[in-house]
Amino acid sequence: MDELEALHQEVRGCTKCPLARGRTLAVPGEGPRSARVMFVGEAPGFHEDRQGRPFVGAAGNFLTELLASIGLRREEVYITNIIKCRPPGNRDPYMDEIEACSPYLDRQVELINPKVIVTLGRYSLAHWLPNAKISQVHGKPIRVGSRVIFPMYHPAAALHQPALKRTVEEDFRKLGAFLAGALKAEEEEPPEEPRQLSLF
Ligand code: URA
Ligand code: SF4
Fold first, then answer.
1. How far apart are CA 148 and CA 114, in angstroms?
2. Which of 60, 92, 94, 185 is the most buried (most CB within 10 A)?
């Protein structure tokens, strides 16, 4: 078993916080270990809890559409959440649950080593940029250490608010342009001679 699959298995058996008692299945995350872009949502909802997979309900369908709109397939990105088990009634996660669970996310980031982390919603944004306001930073790449954080509103919130939906669609266009620019920089500059601003 590779390290990422071993980590997924560890999450499936985790009892580090009280959310373990109410879950059907834990949702570790999915996607290739070689993914260069990682999407981090909030927590599993009803369908995710039943299937053990992230973003498979209505918000997931919207996310899949948004990915397709910039030429990305679900299978080529890594998708996970801050919290791996469903909070009862889809309530917001508590601080102590985030503290208990986020070491798994940190290990996923370490193993996959993505260049770009797209945060979906304010909880995952706060993991990397605790003082950032989503209304001010959404749709903009922000360098944090060796990676770029690209904050987005949560697709579930956008589904029920037409203005926010348009904002998320526009932010995805910006993400697409940003990723295309980063890839072009990589082509122009071979990896043997990395330029400081080159992303990949
Ligand atoms: N919302 C999330 O934040 N994550 C999921 O996996 C599904 C819905
Ligand atoms: Fe473990 Fe995270 Fe699930 Fe809590 S939410 S039981 S810490 S996997």
1. 9
2. 60
pTM given for the model: 0.93
Closest ligand 1 atom to Cα of 54: 6
Q: What is the CATH number of domain 37-184?
A: 3.40.470.10
Amino acid at 28: P
Q: Is the CB of 134 under 6 A from ligand 2?
A: no
Task: Write out pLDDT tens, residues 171-196.
Answer: 999 999 999 998 677 777 665 554 44
Measured CA distances, 169 to 51, 67, 75, 95 (Å): 27, 10, 20, 30
Q: Minimum-distance ligand to the CA of 97?
A: 2
CA of 194 from ligand 1 middle (Å) equals 35
Query: Hey, how many other C-beta atoms are within 10 angstroms of the C-beta on 5?
Result: 11
**Which of 69-83, 120-134, 182-196 is predicted with the least confidence, judged by mean pLDDT?**
182-196
| Calpha distance 56→78 (Å, rounded) | 14
Q: Are 20 and 85 spatial neighbours (Cβ–Cβ below 8 Å)?
A: yes
Measured between alpha carbons, how far is 44 from 22 in angstroms, rounded to an integer?
12
Tell me the ligand closest to 24's alpha carbon.
Answer: 2
If you ran DSSP here, which 8-state letter would residue 2 be given? -
